[in-house]
Amino acid sequence: MQGNPINENDKRNELMAHYKKINIFGNSNVGKSSLILSIEKYLEKDFKIGKKEEEKSEENNNPDSLYITEQIKRINLEYDTSNNLYLALYETNTDTIDFIKEHIDTLITYSECLIFMIDITSINTFNSISQLLPLISELNSDKNKYFPPMIFISNKTDLDDSREVSGFEIKEFVDKYPGMLSLELSLLERDSFNDFMKQFVDTLKKEEQKNIYDFLHLVKIQDPPLLPGKKEEENMNNDDLSLNLFLLGSSGVGKTSFIKKFIKFNLFENSLSTLGIDVEKTLAKVGENFVKIELWDTAGQERLRSIPKRYYSKGDGFLLLYDVCSKSSFEDVSGWIKDIREARGTTGINGINDKNNSSNEILFLIGNKIDNIKKREVKKEEAKKMAEDYGVSYFEISCKDGVNVYEILSNLIFESFSRAKGTNKNFKLNNQNTQKSKKKKCC
Fold first, then answer.
1. What confidence tens digit (pLDDT) does each residue in 370-409 have?
2. Domain check: are 125 and 205 in the same one?
3. Taking Cα atoms as reference points, which of 404, 376, 407, 365 lies closest to residue 219?
4. Is residue 232 domain-shared with residue 103, that is, in the same domain?
5. pTM
6. Which of helix, strand or coil describes residue 49?
7. Do both 206 and 231 map to the same domain?
8. What are 281's strand-pairing partners?
9. How far apart, in whole angstroms, are the C-alpha atoms of residue 72 and residue 57?
């Protein structure tokens, strides 16, 4: 079905927003939260969507837990005033560097800028970043893959008399990573912060011109992605493309939490188990097309699995979740894939794709709850092997911390839309018009 092109009088266009994921790494007290607060104050039109405060709880002080704080800020870059842009800012505490090593690739997936902060009055903060950057450098060894720009911030320059890290040490270190921008900063000095903001925004502008992740640039979600009311329902035209996206997996793996995190930037820790099917709706824009999104939250209990199964044939995309802390939920994955492919008529032996009969579904295997490192039962390598066997994509997320929730769903929307439209070859970035391919006339 052809999507509805943008109409100048169509108010739905004003509801659309897109995101940029920014990672900020540094030890506690280097100024990560202060930096985000300063950005908030600096931007006159900024407001908080759902700031997650840093709670001084036992879990956050537990070295066996990833200490990630997600904060989402609205920013209006001068070059893109026609669309709302949100910075999804992830603070990651590097005090416990050993526990970050296992998930560094997941943390920076889809990131469009990496910021590393040190306190010049603390050599320990410099040592932590010195251990972290070589790990990231290894991930950057594949020159065929896009790698986000990096900014090294030497904070608290107003305390130069108490400096423990010399400028020479910093320069010698930064020079090892060509292309990394090095900035000195004092959040107490306005001129210093203004200079940082200018260079930070310039960095984001440059990245916007590059073909990084098509789905992140082209998929814009209703702003904010709340459940549509009557007014929004009326604006969803009948000729818009509609996508049915299913969240599947055993009970307790986090399907409902995933949707709540995406829809409301919130997490309901004590969500009740879904009975049957719940359907949440939102609106997206992919390129020039408005798309109605229906998120099907399905029951995971064995006795209720037959209820949603009969709907699988109408699914445009599937997220199959398991809990990395539950071996049994991972072992159930094969059964879920078999159910999907039986319902869609693409099952090979034991549910694995028959090479002569490729599957026709877009399916992502998702490992949730990576924030709980101590209780992890399923190794990443084991999950990747299963994904490879079934011919599906594999990602890891944390619904609690918001890691990759928005990005994964945007990816699924883009892939599902591309399949529904037949091709994505002619999509272009920066809201450029989508060029329709010219069909050759038969002679």
1. 988 888 999 999 999 999 999 999 999 998 888 888 889 9
2. yes
3. 407
4. no
5. 0.79
6. coil
7. no
8. 294
9. 21
Torsion-angle region of 61 (φ positive above 0: left; ψ -120 to 50: alpha; else: beta): alpha
d(CA 324, CA 372): 9
Question: What DSSP string describes 284-317?
Answer: EEETTEEEEEEEEEE--SGGGTHHHHTTGGG-SE
Phi and psi dihedrals of 166, rounded to 5? -80, 160
Of 28, 63, 56, nearest in space to 372 by CA: 63
Residues 267 and 341 in one domain: yes
Residue 116 neighbours by CB under 8 Å, 6+ apart:
25, 26, 129, 132, 133, 150, 151, 152, 153
- Do 108 and 253 sit in the same domain of this protein? no
Domain that holds residue 15: 11-211
Determine the pLDDT at residue 209.
65
Question: Who contacts 161 (Cβ-Cβ below 8 Å, separation ≥6)?
Answer: none
Residue 63 DSSP one-character state: T
Q: What are phi and psi of 190, to 5 degrees?
A: -60, -45
Calpha distance 336→320 (Å, rounded):
8
Any alpha helices (H) in 82-162, and if so which ranges? 97-100, 104-107, 123-139
CA 307/CA 14 separation, integer angstroms: 38
Question: Directed axis angle between helix 167-174 and helix 123-139, to 10°?
Answer: 10
Instruction: Report cis status (omega within 30 of 0) of the bond before 149.
Output: no
Which range has the worst mean pLDDT, 84-88, 158-162, 308-312, 431-435?
A: 431-435
Q: Is residue 441 part of a domain?
A: no
- Strands 219-222 and 16-26 turn out to be antiparallel
Q: What is the DSSP letter of 380?
A: H
Contact 316, 294 (CB under 8 A): no
Q: What is the CATH number of the domain that holds 147?
A: 3.40.50.300
Q: Are 322 and 258 in contact (CB under 8 A)?
A: no
Degrees to nearest 5, angle at CA 372 with 369 and 374: 140
- Tell me the C-alpha distance between 43 and 21, whole Å: 18
pLDDT, one tens digit per residue, over 55-98 is 343 444 455 555 677 777 666 655 455 557 778 888 888 987 77
